[in-house]
Amino acid sequence: MLEKQVIxxxxxxxxxxxxxxxxxxxxxxxxxxxxxxxxxxxPMVCTLGAAEFNTAxxxxxxxxxxxxxxxxxxxxxxxxxxxxxIYAVTVAQPYRRLRISTIAEFFERRxxxxxxxxxxxxxxxxxxxLTWMLPPIYLAGLSVITTVLLGIDPKVTVxxxxxFCLVLALGGGFMTAISFDVVAYVMILVFIPxxxxxxxxxxxxxxxxxxxxxxxxxxxSPVWDLEAYGFAAVxxxxxxxxxxxxxxxxxxxxxFSARSAKVxxxxxxxxxxxxxxxxxxxxxxxxxxxxxxPDLKSPEEALPRLVVxxxxxxxxxxxxxxxxxxxxxxxxxxxxSAVSIATNDIARRYIVPGRSEGFYVKVGRGVFLALGLxxxxxxxxxxxxIMLVLTYISVYxxxxxxxxxxxxxxxxxxxxAALAAMVSGAxxxxxxxxxxxxxxxISPIGFAxxxxxxxxxxxxxPKQVPAEVEDFFLRVHGRSEGERGGEKDMAHV
Length: 493
Known about the structure:
Transmembrane segments: 6-23, 44-68, 74-92, 125-150, 156-175, 182-203, 228-248, 269-293, 313-338, 359-383, 389-410, 417-435, 441-460
Strand content: under 5%
Pfam families: SSF
Largest sheet: none
Number of strands: 0
Subcellular location: Cell membrane
Number of domains: 1
Catalytic activity: L-proline(in) + Na(+)(in) = L-proline(out) + Na(+)(out)
Mean pLDDT: 85
Keywords: Cell membrane, Ion transport, Membrane, Sodium, Sodium transport, Symport, Transmembrane, Transmembrane helix, Transport
């Protein structure tokens, strides 16, 4: 236990130094909000990977592998080939070319007219709600880790980590988030394979899996008859992630901060490969944990239980730091996205427009404090339901993908169509959640309704494309001299 405490103290000091350095480098609101739009390829890969490699999926998603074997591989690994691959080829470069600060600003640039403001407001509401709810989910995952590895009460974990993260993140904002992500991701690349090797050696490889799993859970053939995690749910989860990540504010913020559009796309391609491999190792490790600790009452404890029971003490401390960094860096990243939305889309636009850069930095720090307090309250109510909460909370954000993709690749798609698509889809998924429709009948059908409504309203509207839309397409699908110059610096960090 002493070794773990020493290691935690050392890394806390390292993070404090990085936070101090980020604070010293923060001069403008763009520095605080987007790291000055100067993020190079290596830190971009790290921050993308660390933002995805979160405790909600790591603990909640891996628990599916503990219960249902290869079903968990679909849930936590294979879907990301499509999730991030599609992101890379559809929105990564256009987002950066627009030089925007939030997803809602995309709606402002693309959709005009009498209902343009309402369209942007809906996007702001959905993205802000999502980023407000996600940090408590990650804290719930962290509480599982500290309970198993340190024996700390979940409430103590929640309070301690929220205060620690708030103190460190208030100064440098997004700069702090990226510096933490670099440290976290380097540790992820080192220690996830180490944990897999521990599981492999202790469980004698794959040979013991047949003793604890039914044959259907060791095959990649679809399993349709599971109540919560059948293959229909797997397909829905994958589809929903593809759509929701396109509108994910924390990934958008990273694209906006890239040094160039090429850096944004290249980093996402690399991230696609690495996340798929890393989550595959996590799911495989958790399957082998079933061999070693087959009777866990809470499957979410499988990964940390494997570490505490079979890793040497010093290695436990380092892995503990990695797991904590995974959660805290992602939580800080999501907080930053929420701060950006609240400051840019609400305070700066409606409440206190036209103020100085320094004023908005102060507003952002105030939003940080408010988010921290709300996170404390919400996190303590969702422990034990991590994966299901994560699943349902992303339903609404996936609806934003319809106007985003149509807005990027269909010139005739109108403001009225965008608003009608989002509202109609939201009405359906709300009804579905309240009534209790099966999961696979909520998000896909809601998305389909949005698509159909968007197409119908567009075709019923004017055929002529407004000049501002032509200018928008020229910008997002063209290449400016500034962008080409920035691409020369892609490898700089």
